Give the backbone structure.
Amino acid sequence: MQRQLAQRIFEEAIRAGSPDPAMWIASQTVEQPVVEEVLRLLAARGSNPTHAESQEVSRPTRLADPLIGTVLGAYRVERLIGTGGMGRVYLALSTTDESVHVAIKVLGRFASGAVAMQRFAREAEVLEKLRHPAIAAFYATGRYDDGEGPVPWLAMEAIPDAVDLATWCESKRLGVRERIALVAEVSDAIGLAHRMGIVHRDLKPANILVTAHGEPKVIDFGVARCIGGESSLGAAQTQTGQLVGTMQYMSPEQFVGDPRKIDERADVYALGVILFELLSEQYPHEVRALPITDAARLVCDVDAPDIRSVVSDIDEALALIVANALCRDRSARIENARALNEQLRNWLRGNTALPAESARASSHASHTSRAAHTPHALESQSVAKSAGWFIPTLSVSLVVLVGLIATGVVTPVSIMRLWRTLTSATTQGAALDPSSATATEPISIESEPAGARITIDGRDVGTTPYDSTISWTASSLSATIVISKVECKSQTHVIAAAPRGGRTAPLQMRVRLDPVSVPNTP
């Protein structure tokens, strides 16, 4: 399939001619293997064949996208504004009202399989149902013939000069209240979807655009799931074992892959991750560099950290809202986005009383903690049996001690000296325990480009260049170091522990971060 697509794009490039074939190829597909194959075919034909052929006319022929100028429904396509894994997005002008611009999403020919077609149809159906200021509006859908068969398209609200939610918050240096207000608007929009039985399943900052006026718009309902029985979406449900979503924002039940367990609370979990990220600039679980199995184990088995462990000035009420949204146990999680919106709005109004759901989550956490410390049944039986001889023995010992003090054989002062000697010996023994001893080792990390974020065993320690120490204990085996930077491919390095100074040279790391070759566009 990729080779056939590469051959077709190559032949079209040769027929049309272009002064910049590489740029034109990028406008046709974002599949890197296809791009590389077309460039290879062009190189085999000549260094710049399309440019050479274009010299026969008085000026270079401009290789136009075949859709530019085409009328789809009531809209005339003006220009390409983005490409993605599912196809291309164009800016189009209404043929009936020249003041109206729309974004037209066209499914790529390379993504025209049954699953892609279902997801595209699902997005059109969902958007047609949802009308909310914080959801990109739906206008129309249809199909056109590209010469190889029908290709679906849908027209939605154009969002000029929009950026994703995280970039907006960072670029505008928004405070906590402003960030919470944006997430509250998003949760209100997702609450509408939940009331209509629709779960987004892929909420993340990249799917929440912010307009130039600071208004959030949720996009990309392509993997949405209907949990009601009235929609034809039921025909395109996820199969058991199929993972849908983006790992950093996926709930534990999404990792399990059982669609029967995925409901509104999966979106609540994703909104909790977004809250955590916007407030701390970190993820509750750093899974980007992990294999899917390790990521699933971490998210499903380890509680998200308290946001206050990363950002100290977050108040308890807000911290509990975040924690409740991130509960691993979905039965203790906030039930839907509408309830989350109510809690965030209450917090914004200055009501810092602990919300009922957060109190329930705190109670659940306490119950879980107590359960974790509940003695095993066999252990409880042993304690019960030992109590049969322990209490009488203790009673006899106390009677003897009182008698010795009364007869002057021992004095309270001598008992205190003996107690201090015993506790001192115990403390020294603990200090000499090699398993509790720690050793530090100098570490230096540099990156090209500089300014990369560093996490060691999931703990954010700063940015490159980094000069500090790493701590080891006798039981340490290794440390996992992740080096990441926006628009670059992250790197993960596992460093073997050297708790006794086993390394003969300073621990130094110098890495080069490669740029991401394919932009992640809608």
In short: The CA atoms of residues 389 and 395 lie 10 Å apart.
